[in-house]
Amino acid sequence: MPGDFFATHDLEFAGDLVLKRFRSWERGEHEREWRALTLLAAHAPGLAPTPVDSALDQVPPLIWMSRLAGRPLAGRRPARDQLDALVAAISRLHTAIPPRVLADVPPQPWLADGAVSRLRGLAALRPAPGADADPVVRTAVRAGMHWVDGLTELGADGICPVFGQGDGNLANYLWDGRQVQLVDFEDSGRSDRAYELAAFGEHVSVWRDAAIETSALLRQFDLTPEESSRVLFFRRGFALYWLLKLRAAVDRDRGTLRQQADRLLALLDPPGSA
């Protein structure tokens, strides 16, 4: 469940080319990025930058790619045609890689390590001073950790294997007036469609900054009942992830922390769950 507050790379622009210089690469971010660009160039041309060259063994690693003309969708509510193009881009990403090729792609990092294990690890994050002053935040944290305590890793029931970006940040979705294209594949890999849709729908850049209603967005995808159950599981996980991350840096945005607490509590007790 990625989405840290700090940039993991630097970009340099030169005409039609972009140079991406990695600040961190101990998790293999540079290798996943290059693999994704190469696969998408072969199986979904035009969806992502075209890979040009790489220096993956250099310190720091470098990747040269084509420069896309679009502007990030982040920070504003998308128009209807932009939302339709966004759904189309996500669907194309998920289905572009043939199953025989996808089977050899390393799994998305969070899923490889176990989402429940990662969530339990987040409990070690120390809250910023005053972060727990709001009783709703305290209640949400307790409820979220109680939920995690009763979890085991999900099995394979309802899984739909896809190639996933692994990061729902709307800043990585570019609109060029006709289509949406994607950038930033540091957390990409063979994934579960439910995980990927939850990662996008619960990202703060989506529901808060762009005011995209997650449930309405999910209705644009043909989810089976088993997938819908998995989506809810991962949505709860991502909502808890963001609550704990915001709680550890509450000086940045106290209002969003309270909104995130309300969001998690609603997901843990959805209508009709009683």
What's the short story on this structure?
This protein has 274 residues and is an alpha+beta fold.
Features:
alpha+beta, 274 residues, 9 strands, 11 helices, Aminoglycoside 3'-phosphotransferase, Chain: A, domain 2, 3-stranded antiparallel β-sheet, disordered N terminus, 4-stranded antiparallel β-sheet, single chain
Description of the molecule:
The protein is an alpha+beta fold and 274 residues long. The chain has one domain: Aminoglycoside phosphotransferase (APH), C-terminal lobe (Aminoglycoside 3'-phosphotransferase, Chain: A, domain 2, Alpha-Beta Complex). 45% of the residues lie in helices and 14% in strands. It is built from 11 helices and 9 strands. A 4-stranded antiparallel sheet has the order 1-2-4-3, with helices on one face. The chain starts with 8 loop residues before the first strand and ends in a 6-residue tail after the last helix.
What topology does this entry show?
Blueprint: E1 9-14, E2 17-22, H1 29-43, E3 51-55, E4 62-66, E5 71-72, H2 80-96, H3 99-102, H4 109-113, H5 115-122, H6 135-149, E6 161-164, E7 173-175, E8 180-182, E9 189-192, H7 193-201, H8 204-209, H9 214-218, H10 225-248, H11 254-268
